[in-house]
Amino acid sequence: MNKSLEKLRHNQKTIGVFGIKKSFGSWDSTSIQSGLFGSEEAVVYMSHELVKLGYKVIVFGDPPLNSPCSQPNENPLYLTESNYNDYSLDIAIFCGHQRLPDYLRKVAPKRYLWPHDTHTVWLPAEYINDFDDVLWISNYLREQWISINPLFAKFTKIFGNGINPDQFMPIHERINPYSCIYGSNYGRGLDLLLDIWPSIKEQFTRATLDIYYGWQSWGILSPEKVIKMQKQVKALKSLDVHEHGVVGHESLHRAYENASFWTYPCTGIETFCISALKAQFAGAVPVIIEGSALKETVRYGYKCISDEDYCSTLQLAMQDAETITLKDRKTMGQFILHKYTWNQIAKKWKNLFDTT
Q1: Where in the chain is the domain with CATH 3.40.50.2000?
Q2: Which of 34, 80, 108, 208 is the most interior residue, by most CB within 10 Å?
Q3: 8-162+341-355 belongs to which CATH class?
Q4: CA atoms of 138 and 159, how far apart (whole Å)
């Protein structure tokens, strides 16, 4: 073995990532090819970037049986949480545990919380003090956690989530300047968009709507609501509404690159919204209901603050459709290159790990 490589491996620090939500089902890094969502997507991409920085990364989640990512020499390595005791960890990162179970409280010398969801449970100080720091993804999420547990205010660093710019093609002129895309949980505003679509289509006959994500809503939509919306989507097919469900990231990125507008009348809470980065970086102009963390991650486009104003906001965007320039579309992604790439965020994490 090359001596320098042997020395590197001898000094290599091991990171364990815990607390992955179980509701999604089995997944690993290859799931990017078939479709993966928010926090799971973040774990996959961040793990790869940390490996590039010299770490051994073990994701203790729910990989598929006989996953190629579970082979002993893989890095990142995907295992079930029951395997945690087989490894000596230098750093532990907790995605979903608001309060660490006793068996994980001392699993590594350094412990960091990486929350992706809002917080509802009061915690005693001893559990908050289990963490060396918090890897906040937005100021909105930090403030929300502090509102429940003020002691979290001592953790001040906000890192964000990111994208990989090399997964996107150069921005081009849109073939149809009236084309729209919706790519988030269907329970966060798709019903509003479907309700107003006939009036949008009547006024702007070239308008199209492509929908991505799938019908899993993690409890936001009732079964009755899902059935109603599915019938609505089917009825609107004649008005150029097409539902594609879950697709791999490559297909999804091509869809954002072809859409003129990212139409997201968000009626729920976004703690970051990676889709906002993807849409803007791909050149799809946002048309949103602004709130929660979208105030931080959506820097361009057309915005309103209420359900009642969304139809008129989308109409305004459509009126401008043919005047939006290629330069306008390219400008939207510049702040993302400067702040929200996985490579940059991983380097900031490493600096934190090295200094705490």
Answers
A1: 8-162+341-355, 165-338
A2: 108
A3: alpha beta
A4: 7
